[in-house]
Amino acid sequence: MRPGRPRSLAARVRRSSGRAEAIGTASPTIIPLMRTALTKRFSFDSAHWLPTFPEGHKCRRLHGHTFHVDLVLEGEVDEGAGYLVDFGQIKAAAEPLIQALDHRLLNDIEGLSNPTAENLARYIYDRLKPDLPLLSIVRVRETCTTEAEYRG
């Protein structure tokens, strides 16, 4: 290696338009910036019953849960800002929906006549995606051992 030339690939990288590009190669190598996933967790208490379960099944009866909802946002971190999305922005977008679900009979909410964990995850995703474009996963936990994950 000649004197004065950077020794490591990291030292030979030029940043341009949101991507890192290796310099001095026959064809530039694009090195992705930091891709990350953020998770913000919410919880609410609600009742439901699952009408598609067989008569006599415990889930067919009215019962309640403390639901835990994880919102996962994915993307490339803005190099200048150093973060993907402000957690406060996620909270501001999600809180009205979480409050609308809290202490309710989910079956009575339009769009949730069959409020399985799977359907609830999709319901939440569909309503939050317009305000959280980087939303990639909604995970709904009914108990500490059961969860459903929806990827839009």
Task: Give a verbal description of the structure.
By secondary structure, the chain is of the alpha+beta class. It has 2 domains: 1-32, no CATH class; 35-150, 6-pyruvoyl tetrahydropterin synthase/QueD (Tetrahydropterin Synthase, Chain A, 2-Layer Sandwich), CATH 3.30.479. 18% of the residues lie in helices and 34% in strands. The chain is built from 2 helices and 7 strands, in the order E-E-E-E-E-H-H-E-E. It has helices spanning 87-101, 117-128, and strands at 13-16, 19-22, 30-31, 35-48, 63-76, 135-143, 146-150. It is elongated, with a radius of gyration of 22 Å. It starts with 12 loop residues before the first strand and ends with a strand. Mean pLDDT is 86; it is low at 1-18.
Give the low-confidence spans.
1-18
Secondary-structure element series: EEEEEHHEE
Q: Determine the fraction of residues in helical runs and give it as a percent range.
A: 10-25%
Structurally, the number of domains stands at 2
Average pLDDT, rounded to a whole number, is 86
For the sheet with most strands, the description reads: 4 strands, antiparallel
Derived structural class: alpha+beta
What would you call the shape? elongated
Strand order of the largest sheet: 4-5-6-7
The CATH class designation of the largest domain is Alpha Beta
CATH domain topology of the largest domain? Tetrahydropterin Synthase, Chain A
Beta content: 25-35%
Number of strands: 7
Distance N terminus to C terminus? 49 Å
